[in-house]
Amino acid sequence: MSSKPELDWFKSSYSDSGNGESDCVEIATTPGTVHVRDSKNTDGPRLAFGPAAWSGFVAYGSAQA
């Protein structure tokens, strides 16, 4: 039995890099938490953010793009 909860994962439609590789993450939401995982390693490590931390993470990532 897996200790990881069953989540409804999704990936942005903007994630296709156009070169045949998909370097992106998938997210799933639960009340009060945004879960993040590597789309190429779905059984690998995951991150979990509360609402304020997720907002900061997205703002930081957007500024780096």
From TrEMBL:
Residues 1-22 are annotated as: Disordered. InterPro entries: DUF397 (IPR007278). Residues 8-59 form the DUF397 domain. This is DUF397 domain-containing protein. It comes from Streptomyces filamentosus. The lineage of its organism: Bacteria, Bacillati, Actinomycetota, Actinomycetes, Kitasatosporales.
